[in-house]
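Blinded run. Sample ID left blank on purpose so nobody reads anything into the name before looking at the predicted structure. Input follows.
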Amino acid sequence: MDNKLLLISRGSTFMVDALANGLAEVGIEVIKAEPKMSVLEQYKEEPNVVLFYMGNYLEEIADVLVYLKDLCVEKDKILCTIGDAEEFETLCKSISSSYIKEHFERPLNVKDAAEKMQFIFASNDERARRKRILLVDDDAAYLTMAKSWLEEDYRVVVVNSGMQAITYLANNVPDLILLDYEMPVTTGPQVLEMIRSEIGTSGIPVFFLTAKGDKESVMKVVSLKPNGYLLKTMKKEELLKTIGDFFMLRKG
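Blinded prediction complete.
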């Protein structure tokens, strides 16, 4: 198991040093980094777990926050954060809470945080063996709900636009794509067409997500020949069973 962690903070304070020492005591190797794009670029491939120690400077680095979000999505990194309520609210203007695995409130209990991060590393080792699903939807509420359901059994990457999905697929091959049929700018059918037209992505199974369950709407979705479709009104158990059955059939 890779126990490296990227600790992002502006400068080195007493609490940041105490946190780094606490993480080291539970066997986590800490790599410190400034919240700058040129610095984060060096860690695109690893570590796979990122811990962001926030401060009152977040509004000054909005571009860095967007880059960090994109980096975590494209490279399937786990993002955790530390900060007070106001800092977390500011962060969520650039990085949706659905992308954040764990948030620690300040003032920080270093021992508790280190133990929780140790648990996240252990979970990540098991998570790496799971099927990976790319969830594409512009509805933030549905993204958050579906991600929480799917994470019980799968590795889930979420993006909120068709072009973000295409960007992600340029360097990643998930086991299944759940694609919203109706999205602004780049629609689900357009994304499916782009996926099917590229050799590297043409074989990835795609399920459309649709809010319309009437016969005419369903026939319209099915006519595009996705590998399946899921109604957004599905209950959790039904959604998980449909996806689980699909993977079982492919395995067989």
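Unblinding after everyone has recorded impressions. The chain is about 40% helix and 20% strand.
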